[in-house]
């Protein structure tokens, strides 16, 4: 299991490096900047809402739901999960002059599935999931949703362009 995680991590790093090296710099227009600012606010409010709910649930219910590490990881994950799909859907995730490509969406969706498959396989084999595997589930869901949003947005944009 450890070797598979290391291999997936190395593959993800190499794809990330390739994407970074081939990245075309672009500028955001004023509308995109406003959408990104709004997305940051939504992500912040979501994180604060999550932390408030967990805090009051622990104080009132007198139970500890999450460790501090899990709460930090869940907060970052949830904030990113709010930010990325919102900005993608509003056409503000990528700069203006960058060519729209589905390769990033396929990469994210594929990596998301690769992160989810080992955890799902372990769960069905032993009906138990290790604590560290929960972080792989978080990452897999985030990548799968982000990749699917990119693919869906590009598909709808192509359909709209064909209709003109």
Summarize the structure.
It contains five helices and no strands. The protein is mainly α and 164 residues long.
Word description of this protein:
With 164 residues, the protein is mostly helical. It has two domains: 30-94, no CATH class; 99-156. It is built from five helices and no strands. The protein has helices at 2-21, 30-61, 68-89, 103-126, 131-163. The longest helix is centred in the C-terminal third of the chain and has 33 residues, at 131-163. It is globular and about 55 Å long. The relative contact order is 0.13. The mean pLDDT is 82. The chain crosses the membrane at residues 42-58, 70-89, 104-124, 136-156. Keywords: Membrane, Transmembrane, Transmembrane helix.
**What integer is the average pLDDT?**
82
Count all strands and give the number. 0
Q: Could you tell me the strand content as a percent range?
A: under 5%
What shape does the CA trace take?
A: globular
Q: Radius of gyration in whole Å, from Cα?
A: 18 Å
Count of the domains: 2
First-residue to last-residue Cα separation: 50 Å
The SSE string, one letter per element, is: HHHHH
What characterizes the major β-sheet? none
Which bin fits the share of residues in helices? over 70%
Protein structure class: mainly alpha
Contiguous helical run count: 5
Unreliably modeled segments: none
Keywords: Membrane, Transmembrane, Transmembrane helix
Transmembrane segments: 42-58, 70-89, 104-124, 136-156
């Amino acid at each position: 299991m450890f070797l598979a995680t290391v291999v997936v991590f190395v593959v993800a790093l190499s794809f990330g490096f390739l994407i970074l090296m081939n990245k075309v710099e672009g500028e955001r227009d004023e509308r995109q900047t406003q959408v990104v600012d709004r997305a940051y606010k939504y992500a912040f409010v979501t994180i604060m809402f999550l932390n408030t709910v967990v805090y009051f649930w622990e104080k009132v219910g007198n139970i500890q739901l999450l460790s501090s590490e899990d709460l930090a990881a869940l907060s970052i994950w949830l904030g990113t999960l709010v930010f990325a799909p919102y900005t993608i859907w509003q056409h503000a995730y990528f700069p203006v002059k960058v060519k729209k490509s589905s390769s990033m969406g396929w990469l994210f969706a594929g990596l998301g599935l690769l992160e989810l498959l080992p955890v799902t396989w372990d769960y069905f084999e032993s009906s138990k999931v290790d604590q560290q595997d929960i972080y792989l589930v978080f990452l897999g869901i985030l990548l799968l949703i982000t990749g699917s949003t990119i693919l869906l947005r590009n598909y709808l944009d192509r359909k709209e362009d064909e209709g003109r």
